[in-house]
Amino acid sequence: MVEIDIAVAIDKALSDYSEEVQEKLDKCVEEAAKYGAERLKTVSASKGWKNYSKSWGIKKDGSSRIIKSSKGQLTHLLEFGHALRQGGRTRAFTHIKPVEDEVNKKLENDVKKVIEQI
Fold first, then answer.
1. Which among 51, 59, 66 is positioned nearest to 96, based on CA atoms?
2. What global pTM score does this model have?
3. Cα–Cα distance between 100 and 93 in angstroms, integer?
4. What confidence tens digit (pLDDT) does each residue in 29-88 have?
5. Distance of CA 58 to the CA centre of its chain
6. Which of 76, 106, 102 is CA-nearest to residue 90?
7. Which residues on adjacent β-strands are paired with residue 66?
8. How many CB atoms lie within 10 A of CB 36?
């Protein structure tokens, strides 16, 4: 019977540990998403796109967070440029990719800190 009690105690300790780690990682993801949305608002506003900058927000999808704009396809057209009716293309205003890289790096560093603390 002692072996069963030890197994149950180990299982409970691992379960508690797993829940603690998951909570901390979820918090890191939430903070990174908020940071990313705010950075995109700042970058967009600095380019003079006031209404566009206000459209950035976060969508929750399970334990994931999606940074999105309510302006839909405009983000793609601005990021990559588009064909003009009279021929030629508009220039691309690459503003999402640098922020994405920055947020990914921040999240990576935050997750490393969480893992080191545990």
1. 66
2. 0.82
3. 14
4. 999 999 999 999 999 999 999 999 999 999 999 889 999 999 989 999 999 999 999 999
5. 8
6. 76
7. 59
8. 22
